[in-house]
C-alpha cells in the first residue's frame, strides 16, 4: 500500500517544486554557462567533470580520471583511470557515453539543461545517467523509468537550449 501511495505523492511534490529546488547547486559543476553544446563539457573541453566513463560500468563507482590518460570523442575529451579503461572506451565509445550529453536526467525530464555532479552517476539498463545532486538522484531513483522516458521525450528540444 505504501508503494502505491508513494508514486502519486512523489508526482505531486515534483509538480509543485521549482526546478531549482530539485537540482540544487553542487561543487562538481563543470558546464559552461550560455553554451548550446549538446555535450556537457568544461572550459577545457573535458566531459563528465573529469570522471572516467568506463569506471561507472566496470566498478559501479564514480572515479576521477587522470589527465595523462585521455581520449577525444564527439567533440569532448574523456579522462580514464587506467589504460585498459581508455582502450575499452576507444573500442566502443557509444557504450560508455552518458545519456543526454552528460546533462542531468531529472533536469532534462523537466525540460531544462542542467549541470551534474559526477558522483550521482548510475548505470541503468546499460546506459549511464547523471544527475545534478543527491536530491535529484533521489527523485531519479523514485521513478527511474518515468524520468528516463520523460527525459528522452524532451531531449530533442533540450539539447539545443543554452545552458
Describe the secondary-structure layout.
Elements (H helix, E strand, L loop, with lengths): L1 H15 L2 H4 L30 H6 L7 E8 L2 E5 L2 H9 L1 H4 L8 H5 L7 E8 L2 E5 L2 H9 L1 H15 L5
Antiparallel strand pairs: 1-2, 3-4
Helix pairs in contact: 7-8
What structural keywords apply?
single chain; 163 residues; alpha+beta; two-stranded antiparallel ribbon; 16% strand; globular; disordered N terminus; signal
Write up this protein.
With 163 residues, this protein is of the alpha+beta class. It has one domain (2-158). 41% of the residues lie in helices and 16% in strands. The strands form 2 sheets. The chain has a two-stranded antiparallel ribbon. A two-stranded antiparallel sheet has the order 3-4. Helix 7 (134-142) crosses helix 8. The termini are far apart.
Short description:
The protein has 163 residues and is of the alpha+beta class. The protein has helices spanning 2-16, 19-22, 53-58, 83-91, 93-96, 105-109, 134-142, 144-158, and strands at residues 66-73, 76-80, 117-124, 127-131.
